[in-house]
Every structure is written in C-alpha cells, then in structure tokens.
C-alpha cells in the first residue's frame, strides 16, 4: 500500500512529520509536493489524481484547516474524502465510507493527534455490506475528471 501525500505552505511541516513517521513504520510514502504547492486545492488535486490512478494507494493532504483540500477532493469524480480532526472518525471513514483521501488541518491538529488520525485511517478496512449504497452515492457525486483540474 502506498501513502500519497501533498501539502500547501500551511501544511508542509505537518506533512513532513507524517511522512517521516510513516516511513519509520515501513509504509511506502510518495511525496507529491517536495516543495509546498500554492494552496490546498492544488494539493488535493495532486493526491486525488494519484489515488484514483492506483487502487493500492491512499492519500493524505495537509493544509491550514483541512476544509479547502476536502472540498476540492470531493469534487473529483469517484473520490470519497474526509476532513478529520479525531481518531475515531479516521477509522470509521475507512470502515463505513471507503474514504481514500483524508485532509488534515495543520492549525487544527497537532503532530501527535495527526499521527493517530493517520494510523486509524490507514489501518481501517472498508466493511462494505449495508454501507455500499451510500458509498456508491458518494462516488457518483463528484463531477470533475482527474485530468480537468490544474494550473
């Protein structure tokens, strides 16, 4: 499983902390913004494109509040994303919503909480079943193809 990360100028420090932690735990990390991108929308598009291109990838976007990147990611066709600030929701968004991207606000969560959120997200497993109808609806809502957005 690859973990794809990107950040804007407000999330770059948190992204670096998370990337180092993930590598130390043996995860394959792909940093799509070695230099921070201009804004959270751009970071979200980078991550969403990469995750859509590989069923073996999950994504993490770091910006100031997690909302900007969340709004952008959920506009991408077939993408389910979540803006998170607690561990329980991180696990549940994978288990019940099959989210493949999470968006974290560096000015909302500290590095320790962010590590816990990421761990919950990455170790969660989609349970399917009664949740599938909701997931199908969520995936139909995005209208932008991955190649249609960018600078």
TrEMBL record:
Pfam families attached to this UniProt entry: LacAB_rpiB
Protein's GO biological process: D-allose catabolic process; pentose-phosphate shunt, non-oxidative branch
A single GO molecular function term of this UniProt record: ribose-5-phosphate isomerase activity
Keywords: Isomerase
Superkingdom as given in the UniProt entry: Bacteria
Entries under InterPro entries matching the protein: RpiB_LacA_LacB, RpiB_LacA_LacB_sf
Similarity comment: Belongs to the LacAB/RpiB family.
Name assigned to this protein: Galactose-6-phosphate isomerase subunit LacA
Source species of the chain: [Collinsella] massiliensis
């Amino acid at each position: 499983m690859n973990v794809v990360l990107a950040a804007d100028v407000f999330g770059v420090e948190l992204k670096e902390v998370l990337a180092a932690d993930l590598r130390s735990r043996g995860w394959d990390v792909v940093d799509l913004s070695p230099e921070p991108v201009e804004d959270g929308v751009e970071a979200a598009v980078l991550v969403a494109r990469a995750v859509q291109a590989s069923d073996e990838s999950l994504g993490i976007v770091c910006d100031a509040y997690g909302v900007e990147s969340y709004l952008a990611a959920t506009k991408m066709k077939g993408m389910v994303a979540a803006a998170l600030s607690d561990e329980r929701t991180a696990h549940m968004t994978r288990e019940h919503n099959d989210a493949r991207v999470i968006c974290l606000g560096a000015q909302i969560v500290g590095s320790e909480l962010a590590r816990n959120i990421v761990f919950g997200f990455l170790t969660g497993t989609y349970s399917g079943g009664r949740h599938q109808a909701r997931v199908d609806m969520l995936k139909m809502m995005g209208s932008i193809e991955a190649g249609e957005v960018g600078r």
